[in-house]
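step: validate -> pass
step: tokenize input -> pass
step: predict -> running
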Amino acid sequence: MKTLSRALAVCGTIGLFAGCAYEPESHLVSAPPPPPPSTATPVVYTTPAPAPVYTTVPTTAGTVVAVPSPVGASSVVVMQAPPAAQQEVPSARPTRDHVWVAGYWSWQNSRYEWRAGHWEIPPRVGAVWVPSRWQPEGSSWRFYEGYWE
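step: predict -> pass
step: emit ->
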């Protein structure tokens, strides 16, 4: 009986110390820390567009359409220079009337996004495409949309 009680005492002592070493599961949930602030966070200013000015122009089909002139276009000013233009290889020209409109960088969702070039039929005979462009203005860049002249 003495051996049994000693065995129980030893097991109890081991159980007591084993219980002290037990760590309960943690249920604390926290979000990861926010990313460090970027020093190159772009600032975007959008100037409201003036009332659009429409010009009527004849098309190659003989109809007249109203197209907005470049004066009515809005502009975007960004504090970050645009990336270099991407090299594009135009697909086969659909007809001899089509003109290639080159791709350009636009500012969407707080970042630059590439707009691929495409073929377009001019709004009138002799129209010339003036490409979209980013122009530096001090420490910022202003976007000017392309238009038919």
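step: describe -> The two ends are 110 Å apart (CA to CA).
step: cleanup -> pass
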